[in-house]
Amino acid sequence: MTLALAHRRFAPRWHWTLLAAAGLVACVQLGQWQLRRADEKQSMLTAFEEGAGSVVPLPAVGELPRYQRVVVSGRYDPAHQFLLENVSHEGRPGVRILTPLRREAGTTVLVDRGFIATSGDRSEAPPVAVDAAPRQLTARVSALPRPAVELVAEAGSGWPRRVSFPTMDELAEALGEGLHPQLLLLEDSEPDGFLREWRPDGLGPERHLGYAVQWFGLAATVFITWLVLSLKPRRSTSK
């Protein structure tokens, strides 16, 4: 191999060099972005595990760390519920049921009562009925799924109302009242819920680490390919 290299000269072409440099920078940046995402997801997992500890009252105003377990009292508002669309569970399409809980002290809070699989026929409303009796429940503090887009509702002003990646302000406007800024995930042990297998949203940190390795590997491939293409045979000299 050393002998073969001795018969070659390093003569990179400028256009190949520019393309390789652009590809190399892009791959490295994407790999670094995946590493940052892995760190974020690990932080979310840590917060989820730590939130399983103590249970604290949900404050009348203000926010708590995400995934903190809380206890809250109030009455469900069965007449004004949201069907959160564009969600799935193990490949099955469906909706998540967001029900307002009206508190005696503090703003109304939205409670995610879980997932219901649907057939895809939007004319069929899933069974979301719940009574308005006083109750105390335990839940985890969370947030609405992102990214946010415009509030999507059925024609007219009927309820339950279908929404797709709304903001809390949009939901508050639909209800005509202020809402607590955080969503509550109803715990599995609580009644009047549906499928609840709560975990941090998105891919796990190990998936992002795997993608990072792929991008860094592609960067190495781009560099090696450029290096090989830049080695040209030496021109023979004759006397």
Describe what you observe in this structure.
This protein has 239 residues and is an alpha/beta fold. It folds into 2 domains: 10-44 and 204-232; 68-186, no CATH class. Helix content is 32%, strand content 26%. The protein has 4 helices and 10 strands. A 5-stranded mixed barrel has the order 3-5-6-9-7. It has a two-stranded antiparallel sheet with strand order 1-10. β4 and β5 form a beta hairpin. α2 packs antiparallel against α4. The chain is elongated. The two termini are 28 Å apart. 21% of the residues are buried.
Write the layout of secondary structure elements.
Layout: H1 2-6, E1 8-10, H2 14-50, E2 55-57, E3 69-76, E4 82-89, E5 92-102, E6 109-117, E7 134-142, E8 161-163, H3 168-175, E9 183-186, H4 205-230, E10 231-233
Parallel strand pairs: 2-3, 4-8, 6-9
Antiparallel strand pairs: 1-10, 3-5, 3-7, 4-5, 5-6, 7-9
Helix pairs in contact: 2-4
What share of residues are in beta strands? 25-35%
Label the structural class. Answer: alpha/beta
Whole-number radius of gyration?
27 Å
The biggest sheet amounts to: 5 strands, mixed, barrel
Mass-distribution shape? elongated
SSE order = HEHEEEEEEEHEHE
Number of strands: 10
Low-confidence stretches: 148-156
Fraction in helix: 25-40%
Please give the alpha-carbon distance between the first and last residues: 28 Å
Total number of distinct structural domains: 2
* Spatial arrangement of strands, main beta sheet: 3-5-6-9-7
Helical segment count:
4
Average pLDDT, rounded to a whole number, is 82
